[in-house]
């Protein structure tokens, strides 16, 4: 199990409810190991959805070691921490990255996921020797390797996972195998995914590789993360004074890697969470909508799946979009469809369960709605548009309709929806609100 939301380097308190879910899933599937990244991803109320670098100081080291120990105690297992690619280093750093990584693993007694591509990317960006990095990592701590492609922007590299593994990374991987042995290895590919034969060729074509805290310190760390978050969210460059300058790449350029990645990642998240709305509006208009939404609704979720939960409200309240009434309902509909699919499982009411209920007791029975149920009142032809798009057909133009109640729910692994007759809609509303089947009779 590989995560991106542990935020082990954050100054915010660990999210114990999140760790409970990780533990439950790891226990359920009997995971061989659970891994995440040596980084921070946000603050108390905001998530940057990126792997932000940690200053390599003794203060940060003690902080991370304590948090790793707490996580491992909570999960009742050792975790793996992965080195991240980075685009800035800090003037306050006292250790090299490999020394910091080694000390975390030894002091917290955790394991390491060595991302060879990240080692190479950071070595180019910061001018250190990648082989020296490998030699600084204790052999007995490395449990898995990651490989991936990156993007070369000339004076620096960005870890993008959207290309084949570079030859230089394969060479470094060969050196890693020589040092650490035949460690489990995974190639990551997140975008521009080619046909399966090409992926298999990349995998199989390398078979011949050789296999021989004081309060004042806490406040300082909080200020640091707040400044970095300010850069990503608002373009505030106050953090620049803490970043090493470079004759190769200006500080502003390297810092903007994080700011640009944040915006693009959230636009992609909205495209993923609203694929039909994206299709209706087209790339340019959807990007305009997404940019406006991101400015007013920075992410507060560990999982980027839930980013966009307020899009319908934003469409209704924004002067730029509120005149398009159908857009609000389309967004609301598409979000409900996805939320129904992702809803928790629950025991369904079976006819046999009611066999022991006496007829005279039926009026007093109370029912609980399945977690996937959503009810919507629509005044636009949204379902017809959605159905056409789902079938890859040309959707009808948005058109106002008579107000109608619709029900959305999940049946097995398929999301369903249908129009509700007025009487059924009224009865369902009463039952979901906690009412019973008892019929009110006027005197």
Task: Give a quick summary of the entry.
The protein is an alpha/beta fold. The protein is 44% helix and 15% strand. Among the domains are: 16-216, Divalent-metal-dependent TIM barrel enzymes (TIM Barrel, Alpha-Beta Barrel), CATH 3.20.20.150; 337-432, no CATH class.
Topology:
Layout lengths: L15 H14 L4 E4 L2 E3 L4 E6 L5 H18 L3 E4 L14 H12 L2 E5 H11 L3 H6 L6 E7 L1 E3 L4 E3 L7 H14 L3 E5 L7 H9 L10 H20 L16 H23 L1 H7 L1 H14 L14 H7 L7 H18 L31 E7 L1 H9 L9 E12 L2 E7 L1 H11 L11
Parallel strand pairs: 1-4, 4-5, 5-6, 6-9
Antiparallel strand pairs: 2-3, 7-8, 10-11, 11-12
Helix pairs in contact: 2-3, 9-11, 10-11, 12-13
Would you kindly provide a written description of the structure presented here, covering whatever features stand out?
The chain has helices at 16-29, 58-75, 97-108, 116-126, 130-135, 167-180, 196-204, 215-234, 251-273, 275-281, 283-296, 311-317, 325-342, 382-390, 422-432, and strands spanning 34-37, 40-42, 47-52, 79-82, 111-115, 142-148, 150-152, 157-159, 184-188, 374-380, 400-411, 414-420. With 443 residues, it is an alpha/beta fold. Among the domains are: 16-216, Divalent-metal-dependent TIM barrel enzymes (TIM Barrel, Alpha-Beta Barrel); 337-432, no CATH class. Strand 2 and strand 3 (47-52) form a beta hairpin. Helix 2 packs across helix 3 (97-108).
